[in-house]
């Protein structure tokens, strides 16, 4: 019985060693397969270096005559037109965010100044109605934006579109925004209303000048 016990024990050791070798071989084969795949199929191409990109791409659409934004779309198998539409939409989304951030900043500082000057609490500038008016006016004026340049990266085929809004359209939007948000309150004097309106105009100008 003892001899049989040792034989079983030895067989168990052999089987364990065989399983270990099988595991090692499978791991090595998987590694070789991955190496082969990576060597045969090219990876995602990186874009051109900053020194090779247009200035307006590097500066993210900085526009001296107003406000600009850059939209980018990856190379598309659906054709150039689809890629252009995607890049244009991305640029408009970016420009909307820039404008909205600036308007929100001006509303916040206006509310603080109005409260400090004893012209009210400024709480009316934080209502849902104010938010609705803000976004409506931005979308309205965004129709005046237009693309001025586009560039396709020769390295990876990405398409960049530069969308801008001229300063005159920004000024018109700011004036309309101030008049729409700063409404004359019941029993408010004309003088106090004009003071609040002037504060809003100043803060909008400060935001859009930066």
Characterise this structure.
- The chain has 2 domains: 1-34; 57-209, no CATH class.
- It is built from 6 helices and 3 strands.
- It has helices at 2-40, 55-58, 80-116, 128-142, 167-181, 190-209; strands at residues 66-73, 146-152, 159-166.
- A 3-stranded antiparallel beta sheet has the order 1-3-2.
- α3 packs across α4 (128-142) and α5 packs antiparallel against α6.
- Residues 1-11 and 29-44 have low confidence and may be disordered.
Strand order of the largest sheet: 1-3-2
What is the molecular shape? elongated
Distance between the termini: 93 Å
Query: How helix-rich are the residues, as a percent range?
Result: 55-70%
Kindly give the count of domains.
2
- Percent of residues in β-strands: 5-15%
- The quaternary organization reads as single chain
Content-based structural category? mainly alpha
Rg over CA atoms: 32 Å
Report low-confidence residues grouped into runs of 5 or more: 1-11, 29-44
Count of helical stretches: 6
> What's the overall average pLDDT, rounded?
81
How would a crystallographer describe the biggest sheet? 3 strands, antiparallel
Order of helices and strands: HHEHHEEHH
Number of strands: 3
Quick tags:
210 residues, mainly alpha, three-stranded antiparallel beta sheet, 3 strands, 11% strand, disordered N terminus
């Amino acid at each position: 019985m003892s001899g049989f016990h040792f034989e079983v024990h030895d067989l168990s050791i052999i089987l364990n060693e065989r399983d270990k070798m099988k595991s090692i071989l499978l791991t090595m084969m998987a590694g070789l397969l991955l190496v082969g795949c990576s060597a045969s199929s090219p990876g995602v191409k990186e874009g051109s270096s900053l020194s090779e990109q247009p200035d307006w791409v590097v500066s993210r659409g900085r526009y001296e005559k107003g406000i600009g934004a850059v939209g980018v779309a990856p190379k598309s198998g659906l054709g150039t037109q689809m890629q252009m539409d995607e890049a244009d939409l991305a640029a408009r989304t970016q420009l909307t965010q820039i404008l909205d951030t600036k308007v929100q900043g001006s509303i916040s500082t206006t509310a603080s100044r109005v409260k400090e000057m004893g012209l009210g609490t400024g709480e009316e500038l934080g209502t849902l109605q104010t938010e609705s008016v803000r976004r409506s006016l931005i979308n309205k004026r965004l129709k005046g934006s237009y693309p001025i340049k586009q560039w396709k990266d020769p390295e990876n085929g990405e398409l960049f579109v530069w969308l801008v809004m001229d300063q005159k359209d920004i000024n018109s939007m700011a004036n309309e925004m101030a008049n729409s948000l700063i409404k004359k309150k019941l029993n408010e004097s004309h003088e106090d209303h004009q003071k609040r309106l002037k504060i809003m105009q100043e803060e909008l100008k400060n935001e859009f000048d930066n």
